[in-house]
Amino acid sequence: MGNIPGVNHQAAIRAFGRAGFWIVRQSGHVVMSNGSRIITIPRANPINGYTLGGIVRDAGLSEEEFRKLL
What we know:
Layout: H1 9-18, E1 22-26, E2 29-33, E3 38-42, H2 49-58, H3 63-69
């Protein structure tokens, strides 16, 4: 999987929200769930592309699907 460079953590949270995830808890990281999957988003601006690629994969989305949600 390629990477998605330069994505702000707030934009990533909004995109995952559009994909059906909601915020479970927040601290240094934001934990989101869709009822069956749990993802953890670091509060980094921008999020490292390699890290974000792994989060997108853990969420069950393809890179292309995630880009459409941004």
